[in-house]
Specification:
There is one protein chain. By secondary structure, the protein is α+β, with helices and mostly antiparallel strands. It folds into two domains: 128 residues, Fructose-1,6-Bisphosphatase, Chain A, domain 1, CATH 3.30.540.10; 135 residues, D-Maltodextrin-Binding Protein, domain 2 (3-Layer(aba) Sandwich), CATH 3.40.190.80. 33% of the residues lie in helices and 28% in strands. It has nine helices and 17 strands. The radius of gyration is 21 Å and the shape is globular.
Length: 305
């Protein structure tokens, strides 16, 4: 039941499950289809007829039963103007879907006044679903009536932590690979579970940290509330809470500040607000310190190497 005095999103959560059921049916019929139509978007990422069919179907349903709400989707952008926004990623893990890897999911969330109030993650090929609503905890199971509550881990040291990620290329492209690898080396275990799966494992307490350098709102909104309602923390890499910062760091809460010390970004100089630096203790900061310490005096010429 919702907390006393808080808005009741029970009907919206039920609707999100209905939408997820619809998505599961559509994706299940097309997964591993020999004639699956795959196209490339302008950013060269793949989109399939399944992505398009799911988003179009969910939009049709929402237009009937929540006609006043706005919708934000990966494939068709934003429609409508409302403080209530349904956010949809029809298939998170499209590359897995295309290659026949069963780790992909539909992500559905509701954002009200710029706060995520519910989220559903449905992964039919894993026969798993996760969901959460504000103030009511995070759950996993096959249905609302057959569910187990999710709880993050109690791991408190990076040396004991399991870190998950999606890939290394994004960190490399942004000049942050050394920082990420430095964090990874501090952790007990690293695995690239990838996409939504990393964050659901955090909610279940099986993984302790996950981070990605570039994401969109539809990639994160449902994950955010499931992690936080399970007792964890979800921020951008600058430490701002929520899924609105274009990147993500999720944790069990205990390890968050330690991870931000490696991956976090903040203003480098008050006189230059556009300049950004890595978090304290990161590889980049240590390297810059070393460079300053070894810099030659005027007239000595440029440093070598």
């Amino acid at each position: 039941m919702p907390r006393s005095g808080s808005p009741d999103y029970t009907d919206d959560l039920r609707l999100a499950h209905v939408l997820a059921d619809d998505a599961d049916s559509l994706t299940g019929n097309l997964f591993k289809s020999i004639d699956l139509h795959v196209m490339s978007k302008p950013d060269l990422t793949p989109v399939t007829e399944a992505d398009l069919a799911v988003e179009e179907s969910l939009r049709r349903t929402l237009s009937r039963v929540r006609s006043r709400d706005a919708v934000v989707g990966e494939e068709h952008g934003t429609t409508g103007h409302s403080q209530r926004r349904w956010v949809i990623d029809p298939i998170d893990g499209t590359k897995n879907f295309v290659r026949g890897v069963p780790v992909w999911a539909t992500l559905i969330s509701l954002v009200v006044d710029d706060e995520v109030v519910l989220g559903v993650v449905s992964a039919p090929q894993l026969q798993r679903r996760w969901w959460a609503s504000k103030g009511n905890g995070a759950w996993t199971g096959r249905s609302l009536l057959k569910a187990t509550q999710c709880q993050v881990s109690d791991i408190r040291r990076l040396e004991d932590a399991s870190l998950s990620y999606s890939g290394l290329s994004g960190w490399d492209e942004r000049g942050r690979l050394d920082d990420f690898l430095s964090l990874a080396r501090r952790c007990w275990r690293t695995r690239a579970y990838g996409d939504f799966w990393s964050y659901m494992l955090i909610a279940e307490g099986a993984v302790d940290l996950a981070a990605e350098p570039e994401l969109q709102l539809y990639d994160m909104a449902a994950l955010d509330i499931i992690v936080t309602e399970a007792g964890g923390r979800f921020t951008s890499l600058d430490g701002t809470g929520g899924p609105f910062g274009g990147n993500a760091l999720a944790s069990n809460g205990h390890l968050h500040e330690a991870a931000l010390a490696f991956l976090g970004t903040m203003a480098d100089d008050a006189a230059d607000p556009d300049s950004r630096r890595r978090g304290p203790g990161s590889v980049s900061e240590l390297r810059s310190r070393g460079t300053r310490a070894e810099s030659p005096r005027d007239g000595d010429g440029p440093p070598l190497g």
